[in-house]
Amino acid sequence: MGQDFVEVSINVLKLIVIFLLIVQAVPVLVWLERRGSALIQNRLGPNRVGWMGLMQLLADAVKFLFKEEFVPEKGIKVLYYAAPVVALIPATLAFCAIPLGHPIKVEAFHMLGHSWGPYVFPFQGYDMNIGIVFVLGVSSLAAYSLLLAGWGSGNKYSLLGALRASSQVISYELALGLAVVSMVLFYGTLNLSEMIRQQQGVLVFQAFGQMISVPWLPNWGIFYQPIAAILFFAATFAESNRLPFDLPEGEAELVAGFHVEYGGFKMLLFFIGEYGHMMVASALMTVFFFGGYQIPFVNPDEVYQNLTLSLGSSTLASVVTGFLHHLVFFLKFAIFLWIFIQVRWTLPRFRYDQLMDLGWRTMLPWALGNTMVTALVIFILNRSVGG
Amino acid sequence: MASESFLFWLVALLTMAGALMTVTLTNPIFCALSLAVTMVGVSALFVTLDAYFLAGVQLIVYAGAVMVLFVMVLMLFDLKHEVKAFTRGIFSGALKIATVGLTAGLVSGAIFATMRVSPPTGEPHLAPANDLTAALGQLLYSQYVFGFEALGVLLLVVAVGAVALARSKGGTHAGS
Question: Is position A21 within any domain?
Fold first, then answer.
C-alpha cells in the first residue's frame, strides 16, 4: 500500500471515500430514477419533501432504519442475514479497482520537521496490474447473494427468483467475458489505466503499413470494437438484473423475486448492490470504450504541463489535473447511468425463453465471432508490420 | 512483517475452516457454500503471494463453478432424502469409521511431515513481477498445451456425464 505515514493515510482515506461514493450515490440515483421515470411517463414523481423531492430519500432512509426487523419463520437465519451484506461487497470491491482520474503527483515537501518524499497517488482505490480480471472475478461473486437470499428466505417465490437470476447471470457472463476478451486482445493488457492511456488523442491506426488518421474522432475503443461495446453493455444489463432483464424480480409473476421476504435496511442493501453493479458497468464502459477519464482529443500530460506553467506549482497543477479528469470521467459515467435508467423505463420485460435465446443464440455467437475476428486481424496486422 | 503474517493466518484459518466444513456438514447447500468460502480464501492467499492473475482467475473459474454446483444441489437433490440416506445403516456407519481413521491418519501425517521439513535454503526464485500474466500465458500455450487442452476435454466429459447421470436413474433420485 504505502511507504510512510502520509501515503498510508491517503490510501486508506481513498478507500473510504470510494466506498462512501457508492453508498451515497445510490440515494441520488434513486431520486434520478424516480424523477426520470416520472418525466418519461409524463407524471410528477416525488416532489413533496424538500426542493424537487430531493429530501424524500433522506426520509426513506430513516423509514428503512426504523422498520421492524424480522426473519421468516421457515427461513435459514444465517443465510438470510448474510445475503444483503454479500450483495454490497462485490460491487464496492470492484469499483475500487477502476481508475477514476489522472494520477496525482505530489512533489517532495516539508511538514512537521520531516521531509516527505515525492508521491504518486493513483486516482483509484488500488491499482492492480490485472485490473479487469479482478473486477470480473469479484463481481461474479454477486450472484451468490441472490442465491443466498432465495434459499435463506424459505419462500418459493424467492427461490424461483434466485434460480432465474443465477441461470441468467451464468448465461450472460459468457457473452460479457468474450466481449472483454476481445478488448483485452485489442489493448494487449489487462491493466485498466494502461487501456485508458492507449485511447489518447485522435483516431490513429496502422493498417497495411500505412498510418490512417481520422482527425474528427477521438481515439476511443468503441470505434475499433463497436460489436464488443454493444454486447458488453447489453450483458451488463443482464448481470445487474435491470429491465429488460429483470426476470429474477418480475413483479407480476414472482411478487418481487429473491427479495420478497426482505424489508427495511436489508432491502436497501440489495438496492445499493444493484446500483453498485450499474455503476461498475458504467465505469467499465467508460474505461473500455470511451477513453476513461481523458478529455476527448486532449492528452492528460499536456493539460498537466499547461497547468504547471499557468499555476506555477506542479503539485497544485497535478491535483487540478486529477480532479479535472475526474469530472470528465463522472460526466461520461453519468451518461451511461442515465442510459440505464432510460432503458428501464422504455423497454418491456423479456419472456424467459426470449431471454435465454438472446443470451445463447444471439449474443454468444456474435461475441465468439467478434473475438475470433479481432484475434485474426491483430495477428495479420502484426505480421505485416513485422515482415 | 507482522501485518502480513496476521493476514496470512487469518486467511489460512478461514480457508481451512471452509474446507473442513465442506466435508463435515451434512446439508449439501452449506457444503457448497463452504466450498465457495474456501475458494475465496485460496484466492486471497494468492493475493498475499502477489499472484494477482491467479487470484482473479481463481475467483472467476472456481467461485463461478461452485455457484453452478450450488444450483445443481438446489435443483437435483432431494435434501431430506439425502440426510436420511447418510445418517442410518451399516454401510454409512462403516463409512464414518473409515473416514475417522483416514482423517486421523491425515492429521498425524501432516504433523509429522511438517516437523521434518527443513527451511528453504538459497535465494527464492522470483519471476519479473510485471509480466507474470504474459509468462503464464506463454507457458500454458507452449509447454503445457497438452495438459491444458486435455483438462478442457475432461471438464466437457464431466459436464456431459453429470447431465447423463442426472437424467437416468441413480443417486438419491432412484425410484422417485
Answer: no
Residue A183 within any structural domain of the chain: yes
Percent of chain A with pLDDT over 70: 94
When pLDDT is cut at 50, 70 and 90, the band that residue A95 belongs to is confident
Select from A128, A134, A136, A171 the residue whose CB has the most chain B CBs within 10 Å, as the one to mutate to test that interface.
A134
ipTM of the predicted structure?
0.75
Residues B39, B40, B43, B44, Cα dihedral to 10°: -140
Q: Which H helix or E strand runs over A186?
A: helix A156-187
**Burial label, A82 (beta-carbon count in 10 A; 0-12, 13-18, 19+):** middle
Residue that wins the pLDDT comparison between B162 and B131: B162
Mean pLDDT of A370-381: 87
Q: Where are the domains of chain B?
A: 1-86, 130-176
CA distance B139 to B48: 23
Query: If you search the block for the grid coordinates 450483458, which residue do you land on?
Result: A235
Q: Which residue in B has a C-alpha nearest to residue A165's C-alpha? A: B71
Domain B1-86: give its CATH architecture.
Up-down Bundle (1.20)
| A26, part of any domain | no
Domain extent for A251: 70-386
Give the mutation candidate from A96, A138, A153, A184 for the B interface (greatest B CB count, under 10 A).
A138
Whether A29 contacts A36, CB under 8 Å: no
How near does any CA of chain A get to the CA of B38, in Å? Answer: 13
